[in-house]
């Protein structure tokens, strides 16, 4: 058997594995029908940690304070800001009695550590249920709190939500950022739905305060400056205590980066935490990435060589069609349908950007919390 024959059989195996994975793993989430839930009014503390976010707070806090929920407080954490963040917080506090401010000063042991600031905010919260978002995020509806906290039960104490990015017309970078966000959400929602929760996003995440103290907070990864969301969920989440919330009224939305340099810097910080995930999670995520990478490399080599090109083309069509169907359903559920048509192109671009980031993170350490 020649090298090209070996590549063809390897390519066929990659396609079969991916098709099965798309249909029975991603597809289980993508085609999952949402159950109509009864909205509850559990008391909740909305926690926002801000560092130099004066303008974002001015724009986004009104959306949070106007939520249709009868019993919530907003814990605003000023993490040693050098701008007018604290003044903005105090202005809103003078107008709303349900705002609590935690003003954090830098100390040598935890200089610039967001987890230290968050820990102080969590301890200051008076409610048992905590809902997290960022200062640069806003809820897409006035029922965000009710939708997210409505998922809490006696058993389900961690709720994973979706944090979208706003759409910018005629911007390739915007499509790429949103495509990467959609891919990440498809991964963590599908894993959680299959009973293997491994991460969440701090832009839209809720959990019972008891889960925080049960794991001793962020202590196991306190020296890792990022990962207050994904590393916490990776440690605390289990099949029995975690649930997803994918209703459209539960989403948050952020303004995305407007240049490649800023976005790459952000992704370097995010990806740098993945090495601290549980071994089983790292193996699964690495396998997904490796299969995507091998699909495009093998397909390119086989098409250029024209080796069994009809069979190769058929396998490519099978894989991409399956991906379109599953991604189409998932993107519709997460309000990202305009990305579907660009899926193959965006996937190739994202694969090589991620590879570049992996290499850069090995060579040099990324910067962290502002």
Automatic annotation (TrEMBL):
GO MF entry, a single one: glycosyltransferase activity
Stretches assigned to the Glycosyltransferase 2-like domain: 45-179
Keyword Transmembrane helix tagged: yes
UniProt-listed InterPro entries: Glyco_trans_2-like (IPR001173), Nucleotide-diphossugar_trans (IPR029044)
Transmembrane parts of this sequence: 6-26, 283-302, 308-327, 339-363
Top-level taxon in the UniProt lineage: Bacteria
Keywords of this entry: Glycosyltransferase, Membrane, Transferase, Transmembrane, Transmembrane helix
Pfam family, one: Glycos_transf_2
PANTHER family given in the database record: POLY-BETA-1,6-N-ACETYL-D-GLUCOSAMINE SYNTHASE
Family indicated by similarity: Belongs to the glycosyltransferase 2 family.
Protein name (record): Glycosyl transferase family 2
Source organism of this protein record: Siansivirga zeaxanthinifaciens CC-SAMT-1
